[in-house]
Fold:
Amino acid sequence: MELLSWGEIAIRSVTQLTPVWVALIITFFVSIRYKRSLGLYGKLFDSTVGMIGFALVMFWVYTGVFSTMFELVATHDPLSQVSGMKNKVPGTPMRGAEAGDYPYYLWGGDNLARDVFSRVMIGSGIVVLIAPLATLFAFMVGITLGLPAGYYGGRLDLVLSFLANLILAFPVILLFYLLVTPEIRMTGMPQYMAVVLFSFPLIFFGVLINSRYYIDPMKRNILMVVILGVLGWLYLSLINEANSKVTLFNAIDGFDVDAGLLTVFVSVVFVNSPTVFRIVRGLAMDIKTRDYVAAAQTRGEGTWYIMLWEILPNARGPLIVDFCLRIGYTTILLGTLGFFGLGLESESPNWGATINEGRKLLSIYPHPALPPAIALLSLVLGLNLLADGLREESLKD
Amino acid sequence: MLLFILRRFAVMVFTALCLTFIVFFMTNLYPNLEKLAKSEGNFRMDDAAVASFLDNRGYLDPLPIKYGRWLGVLPGYVIEGSDGKTRGQCFERGTDGTGAPRFCGVLQGNWGFSTVFKDDVGSIVATRLSLTGVLMFWVMVIMIPTALVLGVVAGMREGSRTDRTLSTVAITTTATPEYVSGVIFIAVFSSSAFGLKWFKGSAATAMENPTFENFFLPVVTIALYGMGYIARMTRASMAEVMTAQYIRTARLKGVSFGNIVMKHALRNALIAPFTVIMLQFPWLLNGVVIVETLFNYKGFGWVLVQAAGNNDIELLLAVSVVSVVVVLVTQLISDIGYVYLNPRISVN
Structure:
């Protein structure tokens, strides 16, 4: 078989992504049709920049979902090595392709003879799963600590701010090297950190429900049991792992998380939390001087009610915008970890690691390193544009 | 003002102490020490041999004592080892330690001995830091003027087509981490596949002899990531100043647009970016680590990776002290500079 030309490669790549295009078109059609009744999300479709950003982000989200969960987009197994395909240029026919195999390496082969196209597509699954989740956890930690620090001020603020600045004064890469090595994992350190950091969502939702419904104990108890039950089970499943340092309740351990993945997750949350803390603290200090807070204080509302149900909803605009930006930053951090070969095992198709592998032969074979680099760039760019669009639209009213 | 600086200085010292203690704690966890012992001694040591190796060198003493020794507030260890040799922290290498001082920590100016480079930590950090200094200097020379010009041009007519184009450029550069732009630059400008070969893909020769050909790519790679952020801050600040009353007054007086921008708006618009530029320094450190690894430029960032990858405890501590000082000093300068630039704010 012949080598594919660049046009044929482009056409075949686009065809291979058909499910993603379909999903994107449906999303946009539905969203634009009902945008007047969708609140801030609907307003996003009034801004070109926001729409472009949203499209880029959703492209990778759908690619990640379809390629990892439904095995649709990728053409080959991301780990299987095919002899004779090492460093082959884009469009090379696959050697020894059997019936049912995709006959080409669309974007060429890497230095271990694996399909670059499939690795990039499947690599997106890791990013779109971990980056938003880690950011969410960082927000939980930052909000739970930042609200009281900004609202009470004083000594509590002093101590928490000092701790936040301490973490921020660390060069991120040094911190990663200290946290993510296999030796540190043996000491159980990341798991202990997980025990602390992952408890914040539990505290957050516990306080959130209690401060609102403490006058209606029946309703509160039901809500508490349901929400904290589910979260608690997730929490215990996350932190517990057989044959490791934390084996508290192995009996109800629902699922095991790969130890490398957990370490990466914990360190990314740890690095992001202090910045979120500072933002939330600043917003809380600003908002607590407003009249509606004074009104709530005069009504005799509890302090946690004021923080979580008066201050937090009014701080949502900047927080949503920062959330988008921070997912982008987390994506960059995950790439950095992969780039230095930290955390996930080296053959995992995450973009950072793929870039790192590709750069070794960069001056002769640039094709394995460029696609993951451009993929990462487009996702982060999409998130930044989305944040920009959201900021613009939320400032309008 | 003096009191303010003194107080900040005290906080700085305290932060540095806390941070180095954390680094000390992490690097002195037993699995890390075991790795160190095996790479120092030999890789086939059994557990007992590892333990005696570490014990003979004072690694197994309680953490606060070890930390005190490193700092120089406690006397260095002198241990008669299980192999009959007497080792001391303050002994000159290869001597029996007669006439060695009792204290030899950071406070005495002794930064320790690097196990990776087999050299004095102080001199390693000094040479590598000067190499990175050259890199940073050129980064600043390219980044700051470009970012300010971009920001001012975009911000002086808010909402215009130039503004939107330049803002998109700025967003794109902030979305491009160094390892992405570096890889793209090398692939496009120095690989045989694209055939341009304008620049060198490695800056290894730039350590002795930096030229345009071998130094431009690493400098641009770092500068690009930081540039977008500064440009956006400048743009926001410029756009705000341009809506101020005194600008309108100047325009109504008939001052030309160029004069308004240059003489009236610019100074006030540059207050905010100044702080951002200073706070950008610690951020650049990250970029430096990535770019030095990518372009094989053996400066401070490269040392950080080597030290961290091999658990070189004393080198790692020195590296973290330097980076903490950089972070905190730039914060201090930005605070003080802000006060001087902005007459509405005072430190009291």
In short: Residues 116-152 of chain A form the longest helix (37 residues).
